[in-house]
């Protein structure tokens, strides 16, 4: 068991000549829900990308599960990332995309039918993702992310496209994930989701 799942010290990131993150410190304990908040462009997505090992630090240290994040099977067995919309497989339905996740991850957190039910997609399960609405597609992304086994969720604006009822439902799902011992770090502009979380601001500004 780790005392902290995430340990960030003195993190700085420059993109081009742009100092996006400066001397950022963050510690996240198991079972915590952390909301990375702040105005557009303050570095929320950049921080999440650093935690996912997708953005190298200019200086400072990022440790996830005690080690620098590495783009390898061991890291991704524990970490589920919701970032930009993925590329969808042509010819596969929403259900078949979730079945792919189950085929790849041998111990899914729920069945495909349960995921379709939880994410209110059962009636559109035979649609191609590109024939779903924006919010339905986001629910499919969330279903795929929460279906796979993980102990750390990294979510970049999970509320994107969701109606207010489903945003509330998502807050409950994240609470359940944390109650099971999982840890959540999300970049969000949604006050409801943020109200369930400890707030962290890359820039020191939260509104
Ligand atoms: N490839 C890049 N080169 C230079 N600057 C970049 C690059 N990518 C992002 N930036 C800049 O880095 C800053 C942080 O971007 P980031 O996407 O992390 O912000 P954010 O807080 O997630 O914003 P939003 O709320 O709009 O999603 C922004 O000023 C952005 O313009």
Automatic annotation (TrEMBL):
Annotated keywords: ATP-binding, Cytochrome c-type biogenesis, Nucleotide-binding, Transport
Alphabetical list of PROSITE patterns matching this protein: ABC_TRANSPORTER_2
GO molecular function: ATP binding; ATP hydrolysis activity; transmembrane transporter activity
UniProt entry tagged with the keyword Chaperone: no
GO biological process terms, semicolon-separated: cytochrome complex assembly
Superkingdom in the source lineage: Bacteria
Domain ABC transporter, chain residue ranges per copy: 6-207
InterPro entries hit by this protein: AAA+_ATPase, ABC_transporter-like_ATP-bd, ABC_transptr_haem_export_CcmA, P-loop_NTPase
NCBIfam families: ccmA
Entry's family note: Belongs to the ABC transporter superfamily.
PANTHER family per the UniProt record, alphabetical: ABC TRANSPORTER, ATP-BINDING PROTEIN (PTHR43335:SF4)
Record's protein name: Heme ABC exporter ATP-binding protein CcmA
